[in-house]
Amino acid sequence: MSDPEDPALARAFERARLTRRSFLAAFGAAAAAGCADRAERSALWEAFVQQHYKRLTEDDKRVIFARLEAEVRRRHGVQVTIADPAPLRGVEFGYALNLSACVGCRRCEHACAVENNTSRDPTVRYLKVLQMESGSMDVERSRVGYQGPVPAAGHFYMPVQCQQCRDAPCVRACPVGATWTEPDGITVVDYNWCIGCRYCEAACPYFARRFNFSEPDLRPSEINPDQGYLSNRLRPVGVVEKCTFCLHRVRRGEYPACLEACPTGARKFGNLLDPASEVRQVLDHKRVYVLHEDAGTSPRFYYFFD
Amino acid sequence: MRRRVRELVAFIRASAREVLRGGPEYRRWVAFLALWIALGGAAWVEQLLVGMSVTAMTDQVPWGAYIANFSYTVGLASAAVALVALSYLRGDEDARALVVVGQVVTIAALTMGMLFVVVDIGRPDRVWHFIPLLGRFNFPISLLSWDVVVLNGYLVLNFYLATYTLLARFRGREMKRLKYQPVLALGVLFAVAVHVVAAFLYCGLAARPHWHAAVLVPRVLASAFGSGPALLILVLSVLRDRMALPVSPRVLASLRVVVTAALWVNLFLFGAEAFTEFYAGSSHAAPLRYMLFGLHGHRLLVPYLWLALALNVGATAVLSTPRLFAREGLLRGACGATIVGLWIEKGMGHVVPGFIPSSLGEIVEYSPSLHETLVCAGVWAAGALLLTLMLKVAVPVEFGQLRLYPTQGGPS
Q: What's the rounded Cα separation, in Å, for the pair B233 and B309?
């Protein structure tokens, strides 16, 4: 809300008004012309009857991805590639964050938005950095929209994103199975299956989920064309989205965008099943803890002081 | 078989005639409701076109007026089971004749509840995802899927029971016990399930300390058995005055006792909850503190909740004092206060504080937008219209002369 790059409130209002007007105008025009052209209509129908991700064959996926890519081309004039890298055998992803090193610069938050095509207006951010008071772990005494130079005296910083729980309350909450945990430990959402009831948002103890209250808005130049079906592809209005540890990157052996952006090396990521991985080194040799352990969610995201 | 169909067609035609007929007051009332339905419908269409951004909800407070009203209207569905319990457990014949009115109120309440869910979801075009096999119904893991089952089940049962009763009356036949009572018993089970699941929906969330408490279950039941029978008392007395419905004072008295007991239980549990939260002064008390006193200067809900508390206490006082509730006006006023007080307390007062502070400690307040208010009014109007139309048919069939063969027999 108090993010420096956020547009002024007035601009947001103006934009909302214009979108609404153009939307109504488009609707009226479509109605007047009989309907949109045939290709658009059939795409709408195919989207409507599209089955759950887990029921799609490889052929189905090819057709669907092509349809989604065409839609982005038509609406934004950008050529994107939607891929669906499979989870790797013997890999379970985990994250560890060194709170002694984090300076609260929020570059992770920004890099996340750039990588994951989250809406710029309204601003959707998966990742929140909490400015905590020294001597307290109480999030109620923290602030998210802090201003001024960092690190500020008397404070430490705690970034919070999806904790990729082993027993995820959001997955249990979803009435239509639109969100689930993949074999590599990443909880994903099928944006074409979510009904937008937001029960998962109510169930999440980490404020990790975001709902698209309006059509996500990005300038064509802001769209990251390297997209994953279950991660950073452009989301439709009215569905929930979340951090996926940059699934489309990490399954190719790259780091999540938040880690690459971190200037202090506070972020450690890797395969929990590999004893030589960096994240396992942290788990094995540092005193780590998880957030809201009392919620019984068993996160794959660990914090430590070093 | 062919005769059955003919009789059903005759029933539908008679119902349609009955619904279309009516004095100027009836027409004005229906037109008034239709106007609100149109306004609410228009607001909903704009929400569909623009997105949920026309509401005041946020990621921090993802549920607002819609879900608050959903929870409350589901509570009103206790009307049927209250009358069933009176008539079958206590053997009250006068109550038995009125059971169909309770079922009609319940049908309207459940329909409203479902409409509130439909207007709340971001993608109503995808409701078919709920349909087992065709979609992917996360049953029995998700409590929302339980809610879909019990709400639809209870609606179907009440619809069956009400239409079966009315059709038998219309045809001048006796009701067959085997075709009625087992379903009625099943209905009682579903009634309990509806309220219990409505509570589990919230107290199953470990992320929200305000809801994650066992006391929520009896509190939700107490509110349901306060608001449902209170509404029923009002409906029955209006029908008695306007449509000459024979309502025995004994039934009204029994319903009044149910409301009073529910209000006492609700207040008692609230007190127990407040003590538990405030005595130790832990951070778990933050939502309750936010509701009652405000938190860090944020106090949007405070006056609203004290109003609810005042209404509930006032209603309890009137309904517990024979000299006061003996006066018709005060009795109706107390029922109205119960309905409004519990609507605030178990609606917004129950849903919104669950999100304040957010799980990361942010305080984002919520107050419904114009769109949300209009949509809610539209759903309430739709429920009231449904109730009006159903009663317009049910009362003359059950108690009057609306019969397939008018010569065969009058009201019992």
A: 21
> Is B357 domain-assigned?
no
Query: What single DSSP character describes residue A288?
Result: E
Distance CA B369, CA B371 (A): 5
Torsion of CA A110, A111, A112, A113, to 10 degrees: 60
Tell me, yes or no, whether B302 lies in a domain.
no
Q: Which residues of B touch A176 (CB under 8 A)?
A: 126, 129-130, 135-138
> Which of B136, B289, B350 should be substituted to probe chain A, the one whose Cβ sees the most A Cβ atoms within 10 Å?
B136
Task: List, in sequence order, every residue forming a beta bridge with A301; answer none if it has no partner.
Answer: A95
**Using CA atoms, how far apart are residues A159 and B411, in angstroms rounded to an integer?**
72
| Domain assignment of residue B113, given as a range | 2-259+369-399
Instruction: Tell me which of B57, B142, B203, B212 to substitute to probe the interface with A (most A C-beta atoms closer than 10 Å).
Output: B142
Position B167 in a domain: yes
- Please give the tally of structural domains in chain B: 1
**Contacts with B137 from chain A: Cβ below 8 Å:** 175-177
At residue A40, the pLDDT reads: 82
* Residue A199 and residue B142 in contact, taking contact as beta carbons nearer than 8 Å: yes
Q: Which residues pair with A96 in a beta bridge?
A: A268, A302
Please name the residue of chain A whose CA is at the shortest distance from the CA of residue B362: A140
Kindly indicate the confidence band of residue B412, based on its pLDDT and cuts at 50, 70 and 90.
Answer: very low
Q: Which of A37-51, A113-127, B189-203, B309-323 has the lowest mean pLDDT?
A: A37-51
- CATH code at position B145: 1.20.1630
ipTM of this complex prediction, to 2 decimal places: 0.94
CB–CB contact B51 A214 (8 Å): yes
- Per the CB < 8 Å rule, is B49 touching A23? yes
Domains of chain A: 93-304 (3.30.70.20)
- Among B44, B45, B47, B50, most A C-beta atoms within 10 A, so best to mutate, is B50
Residue B14: Cβ-neighbour burial (10 angstroms; 0-12, 13-18, 19+):
middle
- The interface residues of chain A toward chain B in range 113-132, judged by CB-CB distance below 8 A, are 122, 128, 130
Mean pLDDT in order along chain A per 10 residues (306 residues) = 46 52 52 62 92 97 97 96 97 98 97 97 95 94 94 97 98 98 98 98 98 96 98 97 98 98 98 97 97 96 96
Report if residue B344 sits inside a domain: no
Which residue stretches of B52-176 are H helix? 65-76, 78-84, 93-120, 143-171
Please judge whether A207 and B130 are an interchain contact, meaning their C-beta atoms are less than 8 angstroms apart: no
**CA dihedral (A195, A198, A203, A207) positive or negative:** positive
For residue range B262-295, list pLDDT tens digits in order.
Answer: 999 999 999 999 999 999 877 789 999 999 999 9
